[in-house]
Write a structure and sequence with these properties.
With 306 residues, this protein is α/β, with parallel strands linked by helices. The chain contains seven helices and 17 strands. Helix 1 runs parallel beside helix 2 and helix 5 packs parallel to helix 6.
């Protein structure tokens, strides 16, 4: 007999939703998360478009989802990194620093991690003026001049939220247009504390022990100029956390897990959900939907009907 019916790898909205459905159906469920259950939503300053709920912080939403999953009977192990995974047809085994766990089915919901610019100076000054989380670190930059790198919804929405702390926010974006919803663009442009530098990128972060400025490169001309800032927030997307399973299930050329409409992967009994899965849109609601479908498919698999 296996330790669990289903092990869910990842405790973000997708994993927690799957856990809720499965545990409510009286399945033995374990959720493993290498960080804190809640995933990237924990880093979101405000969630204003979750159906049926008023605006609330990402932390509040994640905490409520985690409590629901636990109340239904999920076992949740946070700060537990999976070191090795074996997805044999009958028994799946996940090896962690806490020991090995087995299950008949696995749901892969590892999500993603913030994409970086890949600069040496970015690595050196990470946590010393460079951040990837406005909710976590915005208060540290009260009254200071900062830059936000990116041009999608996250970049513009977080730039607006950072104006509650910073004296001035400069958005640096590589294109001449934004990849964000029109309402997000309007809100950012209407804010007097936000400036924009388009068709540009950060070529270098300046400073030894703390961020003192950035070198901005205008992409069409190659010209560079210095911008004096003491904070930089980078919102240029996410990289799927799929390194662990790259030799276990089929991935696409972006490293995302390939799954069908039932969230089934290339391995029987293994399903995928959330931002680690190849998909067009990445929202909290789409992750919740993925988790729901993955849970129902896992149930059918356990019952021999999949």
């Amino acid at each position: 007999m296996t330790d669990y019916d289903v092990i869910i790898l990842g405790g973000g909205p997708a994993g927690l939703s799957a856990g809720m459905y499965l545990s409510r159906a009286k399945q033995r469920v374990l959720i493993l998360d290498k960080g804190t259950a809640g995933g990237q939503v924990l880093l979101t300053h405000a969630v204003a478009n979750y159906p049926g709920l008023p605006e609330l912080s990402g932390y509040q939403l994640a905490s409520a989802m985690k409590k629901q999953a636990k109340d239904f009977g999920c076992t949740i192990l946070s700060s537990t990194a999976v070191e090795r995974i074996d997805l044999k047809p009958d028994i799946k085994t996940l090896v962690t620093e806490e020991g090995s766990f087995t299950a008949r089915s696995v749901i892969l919901a590892m999500g993603g991690s913030p994409r970086t610019l890949g600069l040496e100076s970015e690595i050196r000054l990470k946590g010393k003026g460079i951040s990837y989380c406005a909710t976590c670190d915005g208060d540290f930059f009260t009254g200071q001049d900062i830059v936000v790198v990116g041009g999608g919804n996250s970049a513009l929405e977080e730039a607006v939220s950072l104006t509650a702390y910073a004296r001035q926010v400069t958005v640096v974006h590589q294109f001449d247009h934004f990849q964000a919803y029109e309402h997000a663009v309007r809100e950012a442009r209407a804010n007097d504390k936000i400036d924009f530098i388009m068709e540009s990128t950060v070529a270098e972060f300046l400073g030894e022990n703390s961020l003192q400025g950035v070198m901005i490169r205008h992409i069409p001309s190659g010209r560079e100029h210095r911008l004096d800032v003491t904070g930089a927030f980078i919102f240029i997307g996410y990289v799927p956390e799929t390194e662990l399973v790259k030799n276990c299930v089929v991935l696409n050329d972006r490293g995302e897990i390939v799954a069908d409409e039932a969230m089934a992967t290339s391995v029987p009994g293994v399903f995928a959900a959330g931002d680690a899965r190849a998909k067009r849109y990445r929202q909290i609601t789409t992750a919740v939907g993925d988790g729901t479908v993955a849970a129902l498919s896992a149930m059918e698999y356990l019952q021999g009907r999949f």
